[in-house]
């Protein structure tokens, strides 16, 4: 296979790195046109359009719209059908994710000024949230846990899950995860039509306040379109891993860490930064050797050839600078003293510290969320968390004494803006 081998001292390094990072699939014009058409149709024809698109894209023939909802007994049976090991793994992962996210709960606060004015911030959970669970090419029970648990920890009243079931095939692990995470309702719909149904509401699908959860390019484009009418978590791009390594580890481990994100899809990104040429060569050899045994080898190969790279850096200091430029979704700091480098790393969705912390643990059960900013957006955004399901309302209760002081300030500023009613409203309350 043709691996991209770069060195930070090459004259063309910046250009080569820029080319590797370029990714624009959710902006694709054909996808946007299709999604626009689907959303308009869902808005206009509601449930009838939903049935038509579910038939067309998921090959699911339903005789009546009521069949898109899965009764709760179905998910409970799915949970009971699981092998003990699978059920225990889901429950243990759920427990760790819950404990971690409970730390994120924000509380309302208020304070009173000396003249009796009270100021504060009231925290309220969102009323109704839609959770998109992908189901086109693969199933993601871990994503059910990662989205539903923080929502429930925040106190969301009603959590509506949608998941496509191509040819009517339901995934027991996905349904069992929904039961464990206490989702409220499940509908077997997917793609842009599911996002439209959640955003506008149809006869059967209730309109939600916010839509969360990852999906393919159609789902991502639909979320962009409905943003504003409803809230969205983020528009997640393909998975990314960046490994900074000191070379003191088995190269097979690092090659497999790169595969672990490359196997998600052809556009996933896997980059290794290391100061030691012999270690980079050993990882390259390991990639070639281990790839043949991987069930998803064609996806891994395509991803590594298009957007993967093994990069020789001058030292770990420079590796941190390059990592900050890339702002990866996942950053493995595979070095002996990871704490030493943390202050230098400013932009990453999640940092996995030390030789024993592989990124895959974070995908399933470490505790922190696996829904993370991609495509460089870690420069300004954060992992999905409880805070995404809570909103803040300001509280202001002005004492009679303060009404005079504040009223004078406000009236002066209001007249400066030419707003007479503002000024008079404040002055009426001045003593
Ligand atoms: N970032 C994360 O945390 C995370 C987690 C899990 C999955 N993912 C990503 O989510 C994505 C899941 O994609 P998927 O395809 O498996 O499932 P999906 O559920 O996102 O998409 C399937 C739906 O796409 C629609 N669709 C397919 N082809 C279409 C077409 N030609 N026209 C209109 N609509 C069409 C159909 O409605 C179908 O139901 C992957 O890219 C995966 O990497 C990300
Ligand atoms: N790595 C993905 C997020 O980038 C999440 C995931 C789900 N299953 C396995 N991995
Ligand atoms: Zn993953």
Automatic annotation (TrEMBL):
Kinase keyword on record: no
Cofactors (names): Zn(2+)
A Pfam family of this chain: Histidinol_dh
A GO term from the CC aspect: cytosol
Keyword terms of this UniProt record: Amino-acid biosynthesis, Histidine biosynthesis, Metal-binding, NAD, Oxidoreductase, Zinc
Binding-site positions, NAD(+): 132, 193, 216
Biological process (GO), any one: L-histidine biosynthetic process
Presence of keyword Magnesium: no
GO molecular function per UniProt: histidinol dehydrogenase activity; NAD binding; zinc ion binding
Residues noted as binding Zn(2+) in the record, renumbered to the chain: 261, 264, 363, 422
Pathway: Amino-acid biosynthesis; L-histidine biosynthesis; L-histidine from 5-phospho-alpha-D-ribose 1-diphosphate: step 9/9
Residues annotated as binding substrate: 239, 261, 264, 330, 363, 417, 422
Coiled coil ranges: none
Catalysis performed (reactions): L-histidinol + 2 NAD(+) + H2O = L-histidine + 2 NADH + 3 H(+)
Active-site annotation: 329-330
SUPFAM superfamilies, per the entry: ALDH-like
E.C. no: 1.1.1.23
Record family assignment: Belongs to the histidinol dehydrogenase family.
The protein's name in its UniProt record: Histidinol dehydrogenase
Species this chain originates from: Nitrosomonas communis
């Amino acid at each position: 296979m043709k691996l991209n081998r770069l060195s930070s001292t090459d004259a063309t390094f910046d250009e080569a790195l820029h080319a590797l990072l370029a990714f624009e699939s959710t902006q694709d014009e054909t996808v946007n046109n299709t999604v626009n058409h689907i959303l308009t149709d869902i808005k206009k024809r509601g449930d009838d359009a939903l049935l038509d698109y579910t038939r067309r894209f998921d090959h699911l023939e339903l005789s009546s719209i009521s069949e898109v909802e899965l009764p709760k007994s179905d998910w409970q049976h799915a949970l009971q059908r699981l092998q003990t090991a699978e059920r225990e793994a889901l429950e243990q992962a759920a427990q760790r994710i819950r404990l971690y996210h409970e730390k994120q709960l924000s509380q309302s606060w208020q304070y009173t000024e000396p003249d009796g004015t009270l100021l504060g911030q009231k925290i309220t959970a969102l009323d109704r949230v839609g959770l998109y669970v992908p189901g086109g090419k693969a199933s993601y029970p871990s994503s059910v846990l990662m989205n539903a648990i923080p929502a429930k920890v925040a106190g969301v009243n009603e959590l509506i899950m949608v998941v496509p079931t191509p040819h009517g095939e339901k995934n027991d692990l996905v349904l069992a995860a929904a039961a464990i995470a206490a989702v409220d309702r499940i509908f077997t719909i997917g793609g842009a039509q599911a996002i439209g149904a959640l955003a506008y509401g149809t006869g059967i699908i209730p309109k939600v306040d916010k839509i969360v959860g990852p999906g393919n390019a159609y789902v991502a484009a639909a979320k962009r379109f409905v943003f504003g009418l409803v809230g969205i978590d983020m528009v997640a791009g393909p998975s990314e891993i960046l490994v900074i390594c000191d070379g003191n580890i088995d190269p097979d481990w690092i090659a497999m860490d790169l595969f672990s994100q490359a196997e998600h899809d052809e556009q996933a990104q896997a980059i290794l930064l290391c100061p030691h040429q012999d270690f980079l060569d050993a990882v390259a050899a390991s990639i070639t050797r281990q790839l043949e045994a991987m069930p998803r080898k064609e996806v891994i190969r395509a991803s590594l050839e298009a957007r993967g790279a093994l990069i020789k850096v001058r030292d770990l200091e420079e590796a941190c600078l390059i990592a900050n430029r890339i702002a990866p979704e996942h950053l493995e700091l595979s070095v002996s003293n990871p704490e030493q480098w943390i202050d230098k790393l400013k932009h990453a969705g999640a940092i996995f510290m030390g030789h024993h912390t592989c990124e895959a643990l974070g995908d399933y059960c470490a505790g922190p969320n696996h829904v993370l900013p991609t495509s460089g957006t870690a420069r300004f955004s954060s992992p999905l968390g409880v805070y995404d399901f809570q909103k803040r309302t300001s509280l202001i209760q002005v004492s009679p004494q303060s009404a005079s002081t504040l009223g004078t300030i406000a009236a002066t500023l209001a007249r400066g803006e030419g707003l007479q009613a503002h000024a008079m409203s404040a002055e009426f309350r001045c003593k």
